[in-house]
Amino acid sequence: MEVAALEKVEKLALKKLKVFMHSRLRYIARSALASMFIGFGVIVAFKTGSFFYGEHSPLTYPMAAITFGAAIILISYGGGDLFTGNTFYFTYTALRRKIRWNTVLKLWLYTYIGNIIGAVFFAFMIYTTGLFAESSVNGFLLSVVDKKMNLPMVELFFRAILCNWLVCLAFFIPLSLKGDGAKMFAMVLFVFCFFISGYEHSIANMCTFAIALVLHHPGTISMGGVLHNLVPVTLGNIIGGAVLMGVMYYYVNKPYFEELDSTIEHTEGDSDE
Fold first, then answer.
1. How many whole angstroms separate alpha carbon 245 and alpha carbon 236?
2. Residue closest to 89 by CA, chosen among 102, 79, 99, 77
3. Tens digit of pLDDT for each residue in 51-65?
4. Fewer C-beta within 10 Å: the chain N or C terminus?
5. Where is the chain membrane-spanning (predicted)?
6. Which residues, 6 or more positions from 249, have their beta carbon under 8 angstroms from its beta carbon?
């Protein structure tokens, strides 16, 4: 069962809370680190995809999707706090009454702010390299950003729900697996699924948009387009992570944990006597 993995989720959330309570600045720095790791994934995905995009190849998206998996491995093994994953971790732990809800909202806010800072800084670094200055290289990235900024908000919202449901599973499922190889394979597979399906991830979009805005871009790519996308996508990501993961896994496993907590309390009561 997923019970052991849920216990790890709870412990991880409490570790994140400890960092937050010790230093808000360090927590923001960890969050910035996570979005910069996603930035690396964005660059390698669109750099790879651009080779196929110029040839109008059907392999454009599959190749970009499989290489984007580098981002989740960097976050999982390199550290960092990602807003989308935290919607699951902190919701579940709050339902278990280990974190207060007002603290959950603060953690989400600080994570999101840190992710924005990391995305902007990484975009500046890419701009200074000149790697995406040529149209032959940035064409694929700009075309994807253009589409994302002009999709109907309702579609963005529901794509975002499905996205974070899948992305949270990409972090959650490997907790039950043994061996780094199996864990990394599962992570890359789930991220490939979300990318190739066309779902919407707020922090990945944030990084991609920041990079597109510092490049020479068409008028259809703008700050207004960023808000048009990120508002519904962020809300959808929250529902996908908090409701479909946090609430759902708490609900289906509640009888087990209630029995376990009751047993622990009973044992502690006997030892006190």
1. 13
2. 99
3. 999 889 999 999 999
4. C
5. 27-46, 66-95, 107-127, 156-177, 189-215, 235-252
6. 2, 6, 92
